[in-house]
Design goal:
The structure holds two protein chains of two kinds. Chain A is mostly helical. Chain A has a domain at 270-483. Chain A contains 20 helices and two strands. Chain A has a two-stranded antiparallel sheet. In chain A, helix 12 packs antiparallel against helix 13. Chain B is 78% helix and 0% strand. Classes of the chains: A mainly alpha, B mainly alpha. The interface between A and B is large, with 43 and 45 residues.
Chain lengths: 483, 100
């Protein structure tokens, strides 16, 4: 049994192994260095994450076989691999953005928790067994609960951490009960074998829908889909801004990976059943997210509702249940991750200086810091889905997949929602470009890590929208795994 | 031998009590206990199904769930302590700094 470990198994978990080593490095340097040097832990983490991406791309790309490794616990395929790289990229940027945050950038434990949470996400992306799935989801969530409540003397942060924890623990308990029933009525914990049992008609339809709904509670919480979205605005507002950025991007992307994988492997034979459920969730998520965003005065809450709305758009592609739809969803997640990370990065830069997250604090930003204003223009137009930025092409893709699947009403709801979205994104840009404020002479300094991160992300948003084919191809390869 | 159905009914009852506890009670610690009850309901179902099928996966699952539950308690209690230090109260209705 133990003699059968071979290189392909090691290569399948190469990113995870390297993340573990990186955690060791951060841990040691945290002990050795004194307070004046600890900021460099951010460089180590960010550098380590990007090194892991490079090494994995060189050595660890999945082959053409089914890729089941480690006794069927993990699956080394392109779907998992593409998402792993995405999470690692998100973690790189988050580490950079964290460096100059007061009370956070110089703490080794922040970077350690970030690394372990990323480790959980990479495992989530490749789990192919209920046990592994549950463990990796918890391994992702537990560090994130702590990160959300990281400022332990700050009322808002602890409250955010606790709310996130309570909702998360409740959602994962319901999901676990769903897992136990799924195991009970199918007799296996393997995701593919469950599909076999469902296909053979071995499960009562009522129970099937019951387990599905319970599992959707857990996944819906992770991707903050309506009606499991309540936590998102509160947690994003209270949590440290960089953590909110990480929660809204990498954590949400991880939720989508497992959602896509479980629905399209285990529940694939019952796709008629869940398609309608998911279509309704998608409609509600888009509409509620966008309409509630209209009334927000706080930029972090606005971004929270906007991220809820985006979860709805991504779900459109999943509902279409086609290769084009999943390709669109994956591509959308890539664009969304990069765009939203940039948005929270800018909020973090501005919040450091102005000490406020109100939208009115952005009055005259273009005069105070033209480059930051420009980055904000790119980011918000991309979120609104304007060409030539990344947000445009992915919206076209998911809507096209809905039309192709004859879900015209869903595409219509999506377009209607994009228009609502455009309105509140433009309101923010109006504050940035048109409004004046009395302290226009006060510059907003952008420190080096922020500058690097924001430049990479802004160029990324433009590249995603202009040079489409490489990203589209990667998404297609990843989507092909499921069909 | 007691039929598996009895265990499943018991586990469903435990789960319902737990879920109601989370929704109705206002004390953070009690809510916490209710969540543990929900996890243990799932554990009971796992163990009962494992006995029915005679395959070990479910029991392995239970060990992992217990470990995760312990870790979750550690994080949760730490957060409750952090809240108690600033608010001197762990009633979740008092957690209303964040809204809008």
């Amino acid at each position: 049994m133990f003699g059968s470990i071979n290189t392909s198994m090691i290569l399948a978990i190469l990113p995870e192994i390297m993340l573990f080593i990186l955690a060791g490095f951060v841990f040691v340097f945290d002990l050795v260095w004194d307070d004046s040097q600890r900021r460099n832990l951010g460089w180590i983490s960010a550098g380590g994450f990007s090194l892991i991406i490079m090494i994995s791309l060189m050595l660890g790309t999945p082959g053409s076989d089914s890729g089941l490794v480690w006794g069927g616990m993990l699956r080394h395929d392109w779907l998992g691999f593409a998402f792993k790289m995405l999470f690692l990229f998100g973690a790189t940027i988050t580490a950079l953005f964290a460096m100059d945050v007061e009370d956070l950038g110089k703490k080794g434990e922040f970077y350690l928790l970030l690394i372990f949470s990323t480790l959980g996400m990479t495992l989530m992306a490749s789990s192919s067994n209920l046990i592994m799935l549950y463990l990796s989801i918890e391994a992702t969530s537990l560090p994130l609960y702590i990160l959300a409540g990281f400022f332990k003397d700050d009322d808002k942060s602890t409250e955010a951490g606790f709310k996130y924890f309570l909702f998360g623990a409740m959602a994962s308990a319901i999901m676990l009960y769903g897992f136990s029933l799924l195991y009970g009525f199918s007799g296996t914990t393997d995701l593919d074998a469950i599909a076999g049992v469902i296909k053979a008609g071995g499960m009562n339809p009522v129970l099937l829908v019951g387990t599905l709904l319970m599992i959707l509670v857990g996944f819906g919480f992770k991707i903050s889909a309506v009606p499991f979205h309540f936590w998102a605005p509160d947690v994003y507002e209270g949590a440290p801004t960089v953590v909110a950025g990480f929660l809204s991007t990498a954590s949400k992307a991880a939720g989508f990976t497992v959602l896509i994988r479980v629905l399209l492997t285990s529940y694939a034979p019952a796709s008629d059943t869940w398609m309608m459920v998911l279509a309704i969730i998608s409609t509600l998520t888009m509409t509620l997210g966008n309409t509630l965003a209209l009334a927000q005065k706080n930029i972090k809450r606005l971004l929270a509702y906007s991220s809820i709305a985006h979860a709805g758009y991504i779900l459109i592609g999943v509902v279409a249940i086609s290769e084009l739809g999943i390709t669109g969803s994956i591509f959308y997640i890539i664009v969304y991750l990069i765009t939203n990370l940039a948005a929270f990065g800018i909020v973090s830069v501005v919040g450091r200086i102005t000490g406020s997250d109100e939208i009115s604090a952005y009055d005259g930003l273009s005069r105070r810091s033209p480059w930051l204003g420009l980055a904000m223009l790119v980011v918000f137009l991309s979120l609104a889905g304007m060409p030539p930025f990344g947000g445009f092409i992915v919206k076209v893709l998911v809507l096209a997949s809905a039309v192709k699947a004859k879900l015209f009403w869903l595409a219509f709801v999506g377009i209607l929602n994009s228009i609502i979205g455009l309105y509140y994104y433009l309101i923010v840009l109006k504050h940035v470009y048109l409004y004046r404020s009395e302290n226009e002479q006060v510059e907003i300094p952008v420190t080096r890590p922020y500058a690097i991160g924001l430049i990479v992300l802004t160029i990324g948003i433009i590249l995603l929208g202009v040079v489409i084919s490489p990203w589209f191809n990667v998404s297609t390869i990843a989507a092909k795994v499921l069909f | 031998m007691i039929p598996t159905t009895y265990y499943i009914v018991l586990s469903a009852l435990l789960f319902t009590i737990g879920a109601l506890g989370v929704l109705i009670r206002r004390n953070a610690i009690i809510i916490f206990m209710a969540i543990e009850l929900m996890l243990n309901a799932a554990n009971l179902a796992f163990v009962a199904f494992t006995r029915m099928y005679g395959i070990i996966d479910g029991q392995v699952f239970v060990f992992f769930v217990m470990t995760v539950a312990a870790a979750e308690v550690a994080v949760g209690l730490a957060l409750i302590v952090a809240i108690f230090r600033t608010k001197h109260n762990i009633d979740i209705d008092q957690l209303n700094n964040l809204k809008g």
